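Quick one:
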Amino acid sequence: MTGKYYEEFEIGETIEHGKRRTISEADNQSFCDMTMNQQPLHLDAEFAEGTQFGERLVNGLYTMSLAVGLTIPDTTDGTIVANLSYDNVEHPNPVFHGDTIRVQSTVTDKRETSDGERGIVTMAVEVFKVNDPKEPLVCSFERTVLSLKRPD
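Output:
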């Protein structure tokens, strides 16, 4: 278990997640198939060629889900009760097959539950494309979790 207990999160701390991931065409195809999302912008090369992007886009929900997964070891691995919400999701720049992403999380809020037995932690999660020299932001969202407190 590598996650943090409620007491270990500090408001304002930024966690640079060390794992990165290059997104393949198969990743995008599989995610679209599993979720029954048949949007041609994600799957049809000929269709996507005629859009402003000129090629297929990686499904934004896959990008977000992958980002959450990349944060788990450093934040909530084994210390979470539940994810409570994902808010303010944005996809300001496209992700394409072959792009590599990195993720960072900044703790923006924390408070104990009303019974004092657990804690609620909110993190601002930012996802960047590292194979682009400008490292553009490709996804951002707030993730709120119900966290265990350190055992006595």
